[in-house]
């Protein structure tokens, strides 16, 4: 079974440190059955393309405009991402929902634009700590995926990847426990299948404080197709160790 390791640099990086990171990455072909990629800030897409092109490692963006080309000052549309060879774009990350007020409607529009440009949307969903502790996390997750399937339809949602990212585990050093990830993934799968998305098309990642020392236990979670890695994706040794754990998981499956 394939495993995906996707880095999210967030708003971190500069030309000099990126060269070191991308060059190190480019030197390690992903093991068979492992898909490796990095989502970089917009200005560094040409740099990622220049260094990673010709390798099997993909690159992508962390956001996209809900509009096409036109008078939308400050926006970057999906066609531009496609021109720079983006294989993926993150959508609906909790940091965008929290700091930029992104709604389900806006997120659905972005997914639509990405699919039309043949860029894979990686859609982030997840609950806050209060929702986890009160038990409301199931309603929260169900609401997030239902909102997208209702707006986009089954076929489009089947072409997106989903990343379960509990907000309380992001950047805190406190990853969700494997049993919590397994429970949330199983719940999300059930909901998406109930909404009509075929089980065979579902790709579900986990994100939130994934590191070298917990990657193996996360890849062992049944039905976990991969990880979305924030801070550790900016550390060469950490990201390489996570990719190596993915390769071991594939070999052992
Ligand atoms: O997209 C990545 C997630 O927000 C996780 O970030 P983190 O690994 O720094 O906790």
UniProtKB/TrEMBL annotation:
SUPFAM superfamilies from the UniProt entry: Triosephosphate isomerase (TIM) (SSF51351)
Biological pathway: Carbohydrate degradation; glycolysis; D-glyceraldehyde 3-phosphate from glycerone phosphate: step 1/1; Carbohydrate biosynthesis; gluconeogenesis; Carbohydrate metabolism; erythritol degradation
Subunit structure: Homodimer.
Subcellular location per the Swiss-Prot or TrEMBL entry: Cytoplasm
EC number(s) reported in the record: 5.3.1.1
Keywords assigned by UniProt, alphabetized: Cytoplasm, Gluconeogenesis, Glycolysis, Isomerase
Chief site of localization: cytoplasm
Catalytic reaction equation(s): D-glyceraldehyde 3-phosphate = dihydroxyacetone phosphate
Superkingdom as given in the UniProt entry: Bacteria
Ligand binding (substrate): 8-10, 171, 209
GO molecular function: triose-phosphate isomerase activity
InterPro entries, A to Z: Aldolase_TIM (IPR013785), TIM_sf (IPR035990), TrioseP_Isoase_bac/euk (IPR022896), Triosephosphate_isomerase (IPR000652), Triosephosphate_isomerase_AS (IPR020861)
Protein name per UniProt: Triosephosphate isomerase
Family the UniProt entry places it in: Belongs to the triosephosphate isomerase family.
Role played: Involved in the gluconeogenesis. Catalyzes stereospecifically the conversion of dihydroxyacetone phosphate (DHAP) to D-glyceraldehyde-3-phosphate (G3P).
